[in-house]
Design a protein that fits this description.
By secondary structure, the chain is mostly helical. It has 10 helices and no strands. It holds the Pfam family EcsC.
């Protein structure tokens, strides 16, 4: 398939996905649940709420830096470059991946997302075996896995993650993917506006506040998931808490699948729309 035809097909898929995202298809139960969560969040004192949101922001930044500077991440980066070099011998650094076609980039990103979905499935299953330590580690581990998935997808599309602009973009993307589904379209449009207004810059010049009261809904849902796991871990089948393990594995897999799909569409859109402006013109050297 001609490259331009393939790119137009992907943009059409993203447009269709956007249109679906605009529709508020929540059931009456989901709407009631969302209103209940909103009321409970509103009851939290403003000072306490502000402190919680600042801690969430700080944890995102710290975890992002930790992942980015880890030996595992550096090894994964080299693996991406080796895989890309097998497709084009002129690739020596992450920015050079823009020389590949969108289908090749999608292939590289799909390899990474498949791995992280499997990691998330296994991690959720282990959480389902019970234990205070495993349960308490679930949210931090899920955050690390999902942030890392976004970083890997970013690099697969040729965006180096080790500068302030790309770091903030990936964190805003992660935050948008965690929002309740009926609020994600607005966050998606804001992400698109950011890259449409983007100038070639090392530093991020926009709003650096990530978490907001709606972010807390994700945390409450995770706590609810862990509560359900705690209830079902007592139901043993052949001495194994299979029900709680499947709940943990299924929930974490679906979460990582959603986040990686959201990130993949964003970087596809960004690559295609910026291709003629930046890449062909040599700005991303």
């Amino acid at each position: 398939m001609n490259e331009s035809v393939r790119e137009k097909a992907i943009l059409a898929e993203i447009t269709s996905w956007e249109n679906d995202m605009q529709n508020d298809v929540r059931t009456d139960f989901q709407r009631t649940f969302n209103r209940w969560i909103d009321r409970n969040i509103e009851e939290i004192p403003k000072r306490t709420k502000t402190m919680i949101l600042k801690k969430i922001d700080a944890s995102f930044f710290n975890l992002h830096s930790f992942i980015q500077n880890s030996f595992i991440q550096q090894d994964a980066k080299q693996q991406i470059l080796l895989s890309a070099k097998a497709l084009n011998e002129d690739i020596f650094q992450i920015n050079d991946l823009h020389k590949l076609s969108i289908s090749q980039l999608h292939y590289l990103a799909d390899l990474q997302t498949s791995k992280h979905r499997l990691y998330s499935f296994l991690q959720g299953g282990i959480t389902g075996t019970g234990g205070i330590l495993l349960t308490g580690a679930d949210i931090p581990l899920q955050t690390i896995l999902n942030l890392r998935a976004i970083q890997m997808i970013s690099m697969c599309y040729g965006y180096e993650i080790n500068n302030p602009y790309e770091m903030m973009t990936s964190l805003k993307l992660y935050h948008a993917s965690l929002l309740p589904k009926h609020l994600q379209y607005k966050a998606w449009i804001e992400l698109k506006q950011d890259i449409e207004e983007e100038s070639v810059s090392y530093f991020y010049e926009g709003n650096e506040d990530l978490a907001d009261p709606k972010s807390m809904e994700y945390i409450l849902k995770q706590i609810a998931k862990l509560s359900v796991i705690s209830i079902f871990k007592r139901k043993l089948i052949a001495g194994i808490p299979l029900v709680s393990m499947m709940i943990g594995a299924g929930a974490n897999y679906q979460q990582t699948r959603h986040i990686s799909d959201f990130a993949n569409r964003f970087y596809q859109y960004r690559y295609i729309t910026q291709k003629s402006t930046y890449f062909d013109g040599g700005y991303y050297e």
